[in-house]
Amino acid sequence: MRCCDVEALWDEMREGVQPRREHVLAHLRGCKTCQDLYEQYEGLAYCLSCLPIVEPPVSLVPRILDHIKTYRERFKIRQPDALARIASPLGNLLVAWREQGITFVGFERGEYETERRLIERRLRRTVELADPPPWVRDAVRQWFKTWRADLRHIDISQLTDFERAALRKAAEIPPGEVRSYGWIAREIGHPQAARAVGQVMARNPVSLFFPCHRVVATSGKLHKYGAGLEIKARILKMEGFSPKR
């Protein structure tokens, strides 16, 4: 379970921006994800607060700074992702990409500038409008022909190991079939993490290509979708699946 707002907050702190206490408390009061995590780790936090304060060795500081520098260089994106509007049988798609592959696929549902800001928030980097190269258009066209994606053209390198494992397992679900969040959790070796899998699917930056629409509740009923349940049902019907009512 992760909170994208807290992740963005950590990024700001790494850049030297210190959050105001009232903003943090306001977020905690309104964020169910953070409330659940707080309850889960409240006891651990209390135990840690009871430990005596130990001064870190002087030699530790440069090692920490080197680690932060290495981490920042590893994930530094020097150029913004390109973004284009591409027509599809389901309406216009917003597709972002960079040299390594496609980084975002979503349905256009509102004013472009609003959509662009949401995409930048999801990717945590800027995007710029551009003309899509043939390989990007071909990737979209091929998916609607075969209901499968060539994952070599998709870039999810910025996600965590758990997120990548969950999305890759979802990509193994055949078109026209569905699996549960619990099934994915068991298949990737985390049988108790069905809820976390749900979070991954909800934040999937490359929907369609990593088909989170094929992941449903244990009962078989459709359960949440970024573009709405109507679109989810429509995609599954196009693939040949009839959802339970």
Could you provide a short overview of the structure?
The protein is an alpha/beta fold. The chain is built from ten helices and six strands; from the N terminus they run ααααβββαβααβααβα. The chain has helices at about 5-15, 20-30, 30-50, 60-75, 110-125, 135-145, 160-170, 180-185, 195-200, 230-240, and strands at about 80-85, 95-100, 100-105, 125-130, 180, 215.
CATH topology description of the largest domain: Arc Repressor Mutant, subunit A
Number of strands: 6
CA distance, first residue to last residue = 29 Å
* Content of β-strand: 5-15%
Tell me the number of helical segments per DSSP (H or I, 4 or more residues long).
10
Query: How are the strands of the largest sheet arranged?
Result: 3-2-1-4
Helix content: 40-55%
Highest-level CATH class of the largest domain: Mainly Alpha
Indicate how many domains the architecture comprises. Answer: 3
Largest sheet: 4 strands, mixed
The CATH architecture classification of the largest domain is Orthogonal Bundle
Write down the overall geometry: globular
Radius of gyration: 20 Å
Mean pLDDT reading: 84
Structural class: alpha/beta
Order of helices and strands: HHHHEEEHEHHEHHEH
The stretches of 5 or more residues where confidence is low (pLDDT under 50) are none
CATH superfamily of the largest domain: Winged helix-like DNA-binding domain superfamily/Winged helix DNA-binding domain
Question: Assembly state here?
Answer: single chain
